[in-house]
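Researcher: We're reviewing a set of sequences before deciding which ones to prioritize for further study. For each one, I'd like a predicted 3D structure that I can look through quickly. This is Aspartyl/glutamyl-tRNA(Asn/Gln) amidotransferase subunit B. If possible, include the structure in token form so it fits the rest of the review sheet.
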Amino acid sequence: MKQYETVIGLEVHVELATKTKIFCSCSTEFGGAPNTHTCPVCTGMPGSLPVLNKQVVEYAMAVGLATNCSITQNCKFDRKNYFYPDNPQNYQISQLYKPICTNGYVEIKGDDGEKKQVRIHEIHMEEDAGKLVHDDWNDCSLVDLNRSGVPLIEIVSEPDMRSSDEVIAYLEKLRLIIQYLGASDCKLNEGSMRADVNLSVREYGAKEFGTRTEMKNLNSFKAIARAIENERERQIDLIEAGEAVIQETRRWDDTKEYSYAMRSKEDAQDYRYFPDPDLVPIIISDEWMAEVKSKEPEFRDEKMARYISEFNLPEYDADIITLYKPLADLFEAAVEKGSAPKEASNWLMGETMRIVKDKGIEPDQVKLTGENFAKFLKLIENDVINKTVAKEVFEAIFDGGVNPEAYVEEHGLKMDNDTDGLKKIIEEVVANNPKAVADYQGGNKKAIGALVGQTMKATQGKANPQMINKILNEILNK
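Model: Here's the predicted structure for Aspartyl/glutamyl-tRNA(Asn/Gln) amidotransferase subunit B, in token form for your review sheet.
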């Protein structure tokens, strides 16, 4: 039986985190009412002229430098002509002839467990199109141009990946680099990171590539993995049946786990590219490039190594925390304020991930502020609240905006350290639970847990657990 190799390259579109669009001053904020973030420039009105947003160039340059690309110090914009309802100008301002970044790579762990370089052919800047909103009830499509003109970079890889696992590893690496740079939030669910998968198959040992297809409409890593496996099997089935694979663009339906043809795949000549006459070339000086390079943050790999060596965190903890920049920011904010690193890690690894799962959100959507997280940990460290109450407080502050100190004060949750009062309560608990006392004194030391639980119930969870255990042991061991 023939064995086939999958060959995959990606085109990754990333919306940049600028406050305004690439060629006008309209807001890039996600979720506004349709067609409210628009002006004559981004709606393609005749006579309107684009003005380049400098921050777009700096973000593109930063991503290029962080992915080992060469920077094109004299680059320019071109017009890519196509006619779709969500493209009001009937062309997209992009870069074909002189993209800002070329010949880079990112390093991932390959299928064989070894380090592998995925080459980046280029990174270019461009404007986003609008979007169509399909109204099935009225059988029509409406156009929302809020997204038109939002700045994008497109990261085009070489066909170096051989499996869905390698694709996800590559995308994760890109996402983390870009998030750590602050160039984008890379939220796939909001479309600020989108990947088109170019895939072909060939017999193992063959030198020539097979006919490739492009898969679109992939808005999660799981969808990307499913689409890759489906398209691989579809192409192999065609080849085995003696049929030809057609070069085309296909749309993935993740609900049905099925793809269907959209159109034949275009080549560059189909778009009739030509230099944009309204935008001057971009000249990037050595000094400007050095300034952008100097602002590079500590990236995930370096941060993970530092957490292990400097804070003695287990590798597992460091791996999970640094995988999501907001968690790393929370950890560092707490440690900077004097919290014990392992205690901070425990809350991020435990309660944070539990609540994230319960809410059905991603870890990079956590809104808890570093300041409040540090204050919360101090309340535990200073014996103001116990661990039982701490869980209630943590849930209250998780969504941001709630000061943990004020919450504890307002709800009367401070730990009761009144030794005499606590001793009286414990004496009553002991008197009311003769079986647990007999079990404990008969050698079943775990029976003390029932007495601790009854005491916590009697004190509404506000007692100091260490003090409860100390007093119980004194009473039971007389």
